[in-house]
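Checklist before submission:
- one chain only
- standard amino acids only
- sequence pasted in full

Submission:
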Amino acid sequence: TFGLLGPNGAGKTTLLKTLLGIVRPTSGRGWLLGKPLGDRSVKQHIGYLPENAYFYDYLTGWEFLQLAAGLFQIPNSIQRQRIPQLLELVGLAKSAAKQKQLRQYSKGML
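Returned file contents:
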Protein backbone atom coordinates (compact mmCIF):
# COMPACT_ATOMS: atom_id res chain seq x y z
CA THR A 1 0.00 0.00 0.00
CA PHE A 2 1.27 3.44 -0.94
CA GLY A 3 0.10 6.95 -0.20
CA LEU A 4 0.83 10.24 -1.90
CA LEU A 5 0.90 13.50 0.01
CA GLY A 6 1.15 16.93 -1.51
CA PRO A 7 -0.62 20.25 -1.97
CA ASN A 8 -3.47 20.77 -4.43
CA GLY A 9 -2.19 20.86 -7.98
CA ALA A 10 1.04 19.00 -7.22
CA GLY A 11 0.14 16.20 -9.66
CA LYS A 12 -0.85 13.33 -7.33
CA THR A 13 -3.95 12.38 -9.32
CA THR A 14 -2.19 12.88 -12.65
CA LEU A 15 0.61 10.57 -11.51
CA LEU A 16 -1.86 7.83 -10.56
CA LYS A 17 -3.79 8.19 -13.81
CA THR A 18 -0.53 8.00 -15.75
CA LEU A 19 0.60 4.89 -13.86
CA LEU A 20 -2.72 3.22 -14.64
CA GLY A 21 -2.63 4.15 -18.32
CA ILE A 22 -5.70 6.39 -18.05
CA VAL A 23 -3.59 9.39 -19.13
CA ARG A 24 -0.60 9.14 -21.45
CA PRO A 25 2.63 10.82 -20.39
CA THR A 26 3.61 13.86 -22.44
CA SER A 27 7.22 12.67 -22.52
CA GLY A 28 9.43 9.92 -21.21
CA ARG A 29 8.66 6.33 -20.32
CA GLY A 30 7.67 4.54 -17.15
CA TRP A 31 7.13 1.08 -15.76
CA LEU A 32 4.86 -0.32 -13.09
CA LEU A 33 5.39 -3.78 -11.61
CA GLY A 34 8.17 -4.28 -14.15
CA LYS A 35 5.91 -3.62 -17.17
CA PRO A 36 5.40 -0.56 -19.39
CA LEU A 37 2.75 1.90 -18.17
CA GLY A 38 -0.76 0.91 -19.24
CA ASP A 39 0.17 -2.75 -19.80
CA ARG A 40 -2.98 -4.87 -19.59
CA SER A 41 -1.41 -7.47 -17.29
CA VAL A 42 -0.58 -4.74 -14.74
CA LYS A 43 -4.14 -3.37 -14.74
CA GLN A 44 -5.39 -6.71 -13.42
CA HIS A 45 -3.58 -6.03 -10.12
CA ILE A 46 -4.58 -2.42 -9.54
CA GLY A 47 -7.77 -0.71 -8.43
CA TYR A 48 -8.55 2.98 -8.72
CA LEU A 49 -11.45 4.83 -7.13
CA PRO A 50 -11.51 8.53 -7.98
CA GLU A 51 -12.60 11.06 -5.37
CA ASN A 52 -15.73 11.92 -7.34
CA ALA A 53 -16.63 8.72 -9.11
CA TYR A 54 -19.07 9.07 -12.00
CA PHE A 55 -21.31 6.18 -12.83
CA TYR A 56 -23.80 5.88 -15.65
CA ASP A 57 -26.79 5.76 -13.33
CA TYR A 58 -29.19 4.51 -16.02
CA LEU A 59 -27.19 1.28 -16.40
CA THR A 60 -27.86 -1.79 -14.35
CA GLY A 61 -25.08 -3.23 -12.23
CA TRP A 62 -24.63 -6.01 -14.78
CA GLU A 63 -24.42 -3.54 -17.68
CA PHE A 64 -21.89 -1.40 -15.83
CA LEU A 65 -19.64 -4.41 -15.22
CA GLN A 66 -19.92 -5.30 -18.92
CA LEU A 67 -18.96 -1.73 -19.84
CA ALA A 68 -15.95 -1.76 -17.52
CA ALA A 69 -14.85 -5.17 -18.81
CA GLY A 70 -15.15 -3.93 -22.39
CA LEU A 71 -12.95 -0.93 -21.63
CA PHE A 72 -10.25 -3.35 -20.51
CA GLN A 73 -10.83 -5.56 -23.58
CA ILE A 74 -11.87 -8.57 -21.51
CA PRO A 75 -13.32 -11.17 -23.89
CA ASN A 76 -17.09 -11.82 -23.70
CA SER A 77 -16.53 -15.45 -22.75
CA ILE A 78 -14.59 -14.37 -19.66
CA GLN A 79 -17.14 -11.64 -18.87
CA ARG A 80 -19.98 -14.20 -18.83
CA GLN A 81 -17.99 -16.28 -16.36
CA ARG A 82 -16.53 -13.53 -14.17
CA ILE A 83 -19.45 -11.08 -13.77
CA PRO A 84 -21.66 -13.56 -11.87
CA GLN A 85 -18.68 -14.38 -9.62
CA LEU A 86 -18.16 -10.69 -8.82
CA LEU A 87 -21.85 -10.15 -8.10
CA GLU A 88 -21.89 -13.12 -5.75
CA LEU A 89 -18.75 -11.83 -4.04
CA VAL A 90 -20.51 -8.56 -3.09
CA GLY A 91 -23.83 -10.22 -2.28
CA LEU A 92 -25.84 -9.06 -5.28
CA ALA A 93 -28.26 -11.51 -6.81
CA LYS A 94 -27.75 -11.97 -10.53
CA SER A 95 -31.40 -11.14 -11.28
CA ALA A 96 -31.32 -7.91 -9.23
CA ALA A 97 -28.08 -6.80 -10.89
CA LYS A 98 -29.74 -7.20 -14.30
CA GLN A 99 -32.86 -5.21 -13.33
CA LYS A 100 -31.86 -2.52 -10.82
CA GLN A 101 -30.29 0.68 -12.19
CA LEU A 102 -27.24 2.15 -10.48
CA ARG A 103 -29.27 5.22 -9.47
CA GLN A 104 -31.21 2.88 -7.16
CA TYR A 105 -28.06 1.65 -5.40
CA SER A 106 -26.89 3.13 -2.11
CA LYS A 107 -23.54 4.95 -2.10
CA GLY A 108 -22.02 2.03 -0.24
CA MET A 109 -23.07 -0.30 -3.04
CA LEU A 110 -21.33 1.84 -5.63
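Reviewer check: The helical segments are 12-20, 40-43, 61-71, 76-89, 94-99.
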